[in-house]
């Protein structure tokens, strides 16, 4: 059951990130993201806007298929923590007030995949097999 749960979490989380990355790229655009990040006070907004779009699009797809899941999930968790601290925390909890509700659950889900791994229903498992990681030994 845990393997199925990890697969469901990983695929849904990946889909959410792909959709958000696509929205940033297609609807807002790179220039719009750079301007928005700059206005929000994100350091190196020109660079981070591109990195965030790429991470969400490519990282989301990699999560869906379960390849390089732990490092991608860790990067996505760091991104969400950054969004929480730099953008959403001052607005309170609720998402309808641009609060941190969504980024908190996305960070927690990504951190769960980073720590627990992608499960057996993943390319990681097919490619790398049952190798024990140091993180797994802590579980």
TrEMBL record:
The chain crosses the membrane at residues 47-65, 72-90, 102-123. The keyword Hydrolase does not apply. It comes from Arthrobacter mangrovi. It is found in: Cell membrane. Coiled coil: none annotated. It holds the Pfam family DoxX. InterPro entries: DoxX (IPR032808), DoxX-like_oxidoreductase (IPR051907). This is Membrane protein. It is a multi-pass membrane protein. Keywords: Cell membrane, Membrane, Transmembrane, Transmembrane helix. Belongs to the DoxX family. Its main location: membrane.
């Amino acid at each position: 059951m845990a393997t199925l749960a990890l697969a469901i979490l990983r695929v849904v989380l990946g889909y959410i990130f792909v959709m958000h990355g696509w929205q940033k790229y297609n609807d807002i655009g790179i220039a719009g993201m750079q301007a928005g990040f700059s206005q929000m006070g994100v350091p190196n907004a020109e660079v981070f806007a591109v990195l965030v779009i790429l991470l969400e699009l490519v990282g989301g797809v990699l999560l869906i298929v379960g390849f390089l899941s732990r490092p991608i999930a860790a990067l996505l968790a760091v991104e969400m923590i950054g969004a929480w601290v730099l953008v959403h925390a001052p607005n309170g909890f609720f998402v309808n007030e641009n609060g941190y509700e969504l980024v908190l659950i996305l960070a927690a889900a990504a951190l769960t995949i980073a720590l627990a791994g992608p499960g057996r229903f993943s390319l990681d498992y097919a490619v790398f097999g049952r190798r024990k990681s140091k993180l797994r030994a802590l579980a």
